[in-house]
Amino acid sequence: MFRAIGRFFKAMGYAMTGRIDEARKTMNSDPNVIRAVVDEEVEQMRHNAREYSNSIAGRDLEKTKKRTKIIQLSQEIADAEKVRASARQRITARATELAKAGKNSAEEMAADQEMQKHRDKNDEKTKEITSKQALVDQLKAGIVEDDKQIDNMMLNLRRQNAQIEKTGAKADELISRVIQAQEEKRQHDRESGLAAVGSNSKVLQEIEEGVARTESQARVAGMLAGADTKNSDAQYLDAYRDPASDDEFAALIAHAVKTEDAAKAPAEKAAGTTETGVLN
């Protein structure tokens, strides 16, 4: 029993699915539905294009930030180079002073605190310049990559916009095609409807068969109810009411009377002769 119930609900599900699919197919051929579906698709595509455009703008903003950072670093590198150049000038000047003071050896110059100060500044700025220059090079490489990515993204965006225009124009094409197809279908239906009026129409044949079946059922019911006997009596009654039938019936009666009288006459004559003989 449970299996039967399960099969029943499964069949109902199939039936509902079939009806839904059929309804969906019918709706998909409606011009208003086509317009709404295409408009919704176009709007979704435009939303995606806007999101993609925002990504391009974000990538371009990052590139702009890198350029700004490069400018800043370049200025810092220039300043560091100036400081390093000044430190080197001072190293040279101090070395001259130490040489005049008789301190010509490297050990003596390295031990001089002022010389050490200038050398430390030189080393500091050299490291700073090297580090910042490496960062500038990295940023410049990033900008080159950003330019490539932005160009590719702009190409994709143009393709998306072209697809949006194509999809929007496709709505008009689809609506025109479905209207034309519906008009052709109506024309074919009218033509097939006119042709179906003849004896070959399956619908008309079914109607005729139904009428004949109803008439047969009525005859059977009439036979069961004694309708045939009533119809026979009605025919006699109709004949009786007909004046021509009345004249014919009267003629038949008159002829029967004459025939009877003619048959009685010889018998009566013979009877009279007998009676006369007896009397004599």
Main sheet properties: none
Radius of gyration based on Cα positions: 62 Å
Spans where pLDDT lies below 50 across 5 or more residues: 195-199, 273-280
The CATH class of the largest domain is identified as Mainly Alpha
* Main structural class: mainly alpha
- Per CATH, the superfamily of the largest domain is Helix Hairpins
β-strand percent reads under 5%
Q: What is the CATH third-level topology name of the largest domain?
A: Helix Hairpins
* First-to-last CA distance: 115 Å
Proper CATH architecture of the largest domain: Orthogonal Bundle
Count of discrete structural domains: 2
Net shape: rod-shaped
Number of strands: 0
Task: Fill in the keyword field for this structure.
rod-shaped, Helix Hairpins, 2 domains, disordered C terminus
What does this structure look like?
With 280 residues, the protein is mostly helical. The chain has 2 domains: 2-195, Helix Hairpins (Orthogonal Bundle), CATH 1.10.287; 242-280. Helix content is 93%, strand content 0%. It has 7 helices and no strands. Helix 2 (31-100) runs antiparallel to helix 4 (113-195). The radius of gyration is 62 Å and the shape is rod-shaped.
